[in-house]
Design a protein that fits this description.
single chain; alpha/beta; Rossmann fold; Alpha-Beta Plaits; 2 domains; two-stranded parallel sheet; about 15% strand; binds flavin mononucleotide; binds iron/sulfur cluster
């Protein structure tokens, strides 16, 4: 029928609306239920709280100078773990990709914290870049690396990244959470594991509240877990992206986008490196990549996958207390 909208167009129209809502662009003064396409059941109270928290992501020296906050926490996240942790530690949280968009990176607070996901034991490239560029004024500096399986050398790498940037951390700890590394871990299994995250986070918070000076010894990281049985379903081994100086990866080498793509644009908005575009029938990606996996975990149609294979291509993850739009707001390169 000529006047019938094709299924793909209809899905695209619906998804465009959903994506706009996810980024907050269609939110009006009347409080609506969250239109987050992946976590639809957010309560009004939660939505109001999340909006308030989302706004705090934009805290910047120019806004906070007059009332310099006691504690400022910078974070980078692909799937929400680090944003969740940052928010448990402070009301004043700042996304590192957003901070890097500003010209002036001068921040002052009595306590400054960095919450980052551990990638191959290291801080993500974008976090190390931020530490080098930013001018931070503080009395107490702490770093929390979240990880999912093995953080054996993460603390020494964190100290080294601090040294490279001329910074000395007063407190460094790691925190075991869901492992979002899809080549090796099945998200459906990961979310079932009790990793004592909230108890461990409460201990970290109590330490920081006392401005405790502490560098976690290696053996305190939870021991590495054996690879799950279904790991590396596809035995094609990619060239390892993990090098001494950080991640080396290009999005086009790592990801493949299937015809399930409905051009909703979520990957375009969530990528902190602006690697996605919607020029053709479906999304395409190209460019230097952090390997944060935000794009692949957030795609509502599981249209993005890792070329070399995944433990479970049907399972994706986002921290249950972090709405999709907050990760988009934290990472988007669009104004
Ligand atoms: C590229 C990449 C590398 C990772 N490397 C490690 C690692 O070396 N050790 C580990 O235990 N977890 C590793 N992980 C898991 C993440 O550190 C962990 O899931 C983190 O909490 C994710 O935080 P986020 O949700 O804020 O992005 C890796 C994840 C990615 C995407
Ligand atoms: S690949 Fe991107 S544009 Fe396509 S459906 Fe997934 S998130 Fe949407
Ligand atoms: S392409 Fe995906 S994995 Fe790479 S930086 Fe963008 S969102 Fe992260």
């Amino acid at each position: 029928m000529s006047d019938t909208i094709s299924r793909r167009s209809l899905l695209k129209l619906m998804a465009t609306g959903a994506a706009a809502l996810a980024t907050g662009s269609l939110l009006t003064s009347c409080k609506k239920k969250s239109a987050d396409p992946v976590t639809p059941d957010t309560t009004q109270a939660d939505t109001a709280k999340q909006e308030e928290l989302s706004n705090s992501n934009d805290t910047h020296k120019s806004d906070s100078h007059a009332t310099s906050p006691k504690r400022l926490v910078f974070f980078f996240t692909g799937t929400g773990n680090c944003l969740y942790v940052a928010r448990q530690l402070s009301q004043n949280v700042i996304s590192i990709p957003q901070a890097l968009k500003k010209n002036e990176l001068e921040y002052e607070a009595e306590e400054i914290g960095i919450v980052y996901p551990i990638y191959g034991q290291m801080m993500p490239n974008i976090v190390r870049k931020f530490l080098k560029i930013a001018k931070l004024k503080y009395k107490y500096l702490f770093a929390i690396g979240t990880y999912g399986n093995n953080a054996k050398h993460a603390v020494e790498k964190c100290i080294a990244s601090g040294n490279d940037a001329g910074l000395k951390f007063d407190y460094i700890a790691t925190l075991l959470m869901v492992d979002n590394w899809l080549p090796r871990f099945d998200m459906a299994e990961q979310i079932k594991l009790d990793k004592n995250t909230d108890e461990n986070l409460a201990k970290i918070k109590a330490d920081i509240d006392q401005q405790k000076k502490y560098i976690e010894p290696h053996e305190e990281s939870a021991p590495a877990q054996p690879a799950p049985q279904n790991a590396q379903a596809n035995p094609t081994k990619p060239v390892s992206p993990f090098a001494e100086d950080g991640i080396h990866a290009n999005a086009e080498d790592w990801f493949i986008i299937s015809d399930a793509c409905i051009s909703c644009g979520i990957c375009v908005r969530i990528c902190p490196k602006a690697n996605y575009s919607l020029d053709g029938e479906k999304a395409s990606c190209k460019g230097e990549c952090e390997l944060c996996l935000a794009c692949i975990h957030a795609c509502p149609h599981k249209a993005i996958s890792i070329k070399s294979g995944e433990a479970n291509p049907n399972a994706r993850y986002r921290h249950p207390n972090v709405p999709l739009r907050d990760i988009i707001n934290a990472n988007t390169t669009r104004n």
